[in-house]
Design a protein that fits this description.
Elements lengths: L2 E6 L5 H15 L5 E6 L11 H9 L16 H4 L2 E4 L2 H10 L7 E4 H4 L16 H22 L3
Parallel strand pairs: 1-2, 1-3, 3-4
The structure holds 4-nitrophenyl phosphate.
4-nitrophenyl phosphate binds next to loops.
Length: 153
């Protein structure tokens, strides 16, 4: 089974949303994927996803209940097949802690997947609801393509 870890800064907005979107989409398609998320920073360890992320996801039928923030750790580079960064800064932070013999493939998620050509999932934390909707739009688009191209049911 493919194991995917999504990583952002706080692990309360973007990467837990990516986790929930991919899990929900895979389930609907009868595909099993092992999916998790983490943050490069430690500020929000143990917290539930941001309520704005939860509300926007729930409007689209995606539950984030039971998810809680954790920090990414070097072992993740051996435990997962793919580690997907949400933005360039997350990617650079991950590069800097990636063990030399890591087995996981590290990539900027929207560089590899999706049709919106934004390259990054922008941080919605300090903005309004439209930023959270946009995060969902980008992630649904990219997760759909990821499942189509990478995962065999
Ligand atoms: P995330 O968003 O990286 O998508 O979870 C953020 C959450 C919290 C903060 C920044 C970004 N913060 O500065 O506390």
């Amino acid at each position: 089974m493919i194991k995917v870890l999504f990583v952002c800064l706080g692990n309360i907005c973007r990467s837990p949303t990516a986790e929930a979107v991919l899990r929900s989409m895979a389930k609907q398609q009868g595909i099993t994927v092992d999916v998790d998320s983490a943050g490069t920073a430690a500020y929000h360890i143990g917290k539930s996803p941001d309520s704005r992320s939860q509300q926007v996801a729930l409007k689209r039928g995606i539950s984030m209940v039971g998810q809680s923030a954790r920090q990414v750790m070097p072992d993740d580079f051996y435990d997962f097949d793919y580690i997907f960064a949400m933005d360039k800064s997350n990617y650079q932070d991950l590069q800097s802690i990636k063990p030399a013999n890591a087995s996981a493939q590290l990539a900027l998620f929207l560089n590899e997947y999706g049709t919106m050509n934004t390259g990054e999932v922008p941080d919605p934390y300090y903005g309004g609801n439209s930023g959270f909707e946009w995060v969902l739009d980008l992630l649904e688009d990219a997760c759909e393509q990821f499942l189509k191209t990478k995962v065999v049911s």
